[in-house]
Specification:
Nucleotidyltransferase, domain 5, five-stranded mixed β-sheet, about 375 residues
């Protein structure tokens, strides 16, 4: 039991017990002292002491009594997810989407700005400013996650991006920090979409996953043993760089359709238009080549198809299964994401929450929530 721990000083023991209690209450759990003691392995007396300290510091609050209870109800406690905020930003070819969330990851506000795929660096950064300022509305955040196409280095700079004009070399961390304050963490959009699926999506019960970001650009994210896999240089999964993988040309089968929007192709295919059906088949055959290579390499439990085209999963999944079955030694399950085009931004929220969690679990005393913000960033509770 945690009460029997020895060898550490009293301060470290209190920190450990406090974090165990926070973990038990994260995610919306509302528990009595008895339930908390059972869940954490602490004695009833230690549980009371830890809960009292966390309440005084602002991490825990007493929940409202259960309505209709007979007699004096047991006191119940909840994690104060409202004690802080995190921000997630998805910078794409057609939109910039910003999400403001609490410390449990519940989205409180969103702001979407439509952009043009051919827009240059300054115009797209201005759209980022508009989305971030719109969703923050004067509130401060503990951490910000940013998703972008291309390869990203450890400092938050875009090392290489072929999809967005003038995007290679942009220091996104520095730019966004002007509006949301540090820390700002930047990651590839396909990787963060995979993170979102592993967190709250259809992949949350799978340990090994290949995520396909299907849209006007094809990307991927890999979950290995339940963790996002980045690779040595953060370039894991970039199989689309190989021309023979088919991902570079795949969407051209859809964009060459005589119409104003790719959605027109999918609708025509649903209406059994032969040319539209052929275009969708060619698209699926091309993305299946790279997907098969990833399946043969990783042997995943699950493939998730997300991104904007996942709304047309009724036309994509079955032919994709047939193509994969031709090449793969063992067929994984193939499912569509339920997030649509919001999955990347949700992954950016999770990236920010992961930073908060690492901060909470760092060395030293567990400070009050206000400690995680500078004086100018304090959120009034």
């Amino acid at each position: 039991m945690i009460d029997d721990l020895s060898g550490g000083d009293l301060s470290r023991l209190r920190q450990h017990n406090a974090l165990v209690m926070i973990r038990a209450l994260r995610g919306g759990a509302v528990l009595t002292l008895t339930e908390l003691a059972k869940r954490t392995g602490l004695s009833r007396a230690s549980t009371e002491d830890v809960v009292r300290e966390l309440t005084e510091r602002g991490w825990v609050a007493e929940a409202e009594p259960t309505a209709g209870a007979v007699g004096r109800p047991a006191r119940r406690f909840r994690f104060r997810a409202d004690a802080g905020r995190v921000l997630g930003v998805d910078i794409g070819g057609h939109k910039v989407l910003a999400l403001l969330a609490d410390l449990d990851g519940t989205v409180l506000r969103s702001e979407r700005v439509v952009v043009d795929p051919e827009m240059g660096r300054m115009g797209r950064l201005a759209a980022v400013d508009q989305a971030v300022q719109g969703v923050l509305a004067g509130e401060a955040v503990w951490a910000t996650g940013v998703a972008t196409t291309g390869l990203v280095d450890g400092t938050g700079r875009v090392m290489l991006s072929d999809a967005l004009p003038e995007w290679t070399g942009v220091d996104l961390a520095a730019h966004v920090a002007r509006l949301s304050s540090e820390p700002v963490l930047v990651e590839n959009d396909g990787k963060l979409a995979a993170l979102a699926e592993s967190w709250r999506g259809v992949a949350r019960y799978a340990k090994d996953v290949v995520f396909l970001l299907a849209g006007l650009r094809t990307g991927t994210g890999l979950i290995i043993d339940g963790k996002l896999h980045r690779g040595f240089g953060n370039a894991a999964g970039e199989i689309g760089a190989l021309p023979m993988a088919g991902w570079i040309r795949a969407q051209q089968h859809l964009t060459s359709w005589p119409g104003s929007d790719v959605a027109d192709v999918f609708q025509a295919a649903r209406d059994r238009d032969r040319r539209a059906l052929a275009a969708v088949r060619r698209y699926v055959k091309d993305i299946a080549v790279g997907a098969s290579a990833l399946v043969l390499t990783l042997d995943p439990e699950l493939i998730v198809v997300g991104g904007g085209f996942s709304r047309s999963a009724d036309l994509i999944l079955e032919p994709l299964r047939r193509e994969l079955d031709r090449w793969c030694v063992r067929m994984p399950e193939v499912r569509a994401s339920a997030f649509g085009d919001e999955g990347v931004a949700l992954g950016a929220v999770r990236l920010a929450l992961d930073h908060v969690d690492r901060t909470l679990h760092g060395p030293g005393e567990l400070a009050a929530p206000e400690h995680f913000l500078g004086a100018r960033n304090r959120i009034e509770s």
